[in-house]
Amino acid sequence: SRPWKHKCDYLGKNPLEFGQINTARSPSMISSPDSIASFLALPSTLPLASSPSVPLPFPLSHGTTTLAFIFQGGVLAAADTRSSCSGLVACPASQKIVPIHSHLVGTTSGTSADCVLWKRILARELRLYQLRHGRRLSTRGAAKLFSHMLHPFKGTELCASAGVRSSFSGPSLYYVCSDGTRLQGTVFSVGSGSPYAYSILDQGVEWDLSVEEATSVAREAVFRATHRDAYSGNCVDVYLISSKGWTRRRREDLKEEDTKLSLLQMQN
Question: Considering 23, 64, 186, 226, which one is annotated as catalytic?
Answer without folding.
Answer: 64
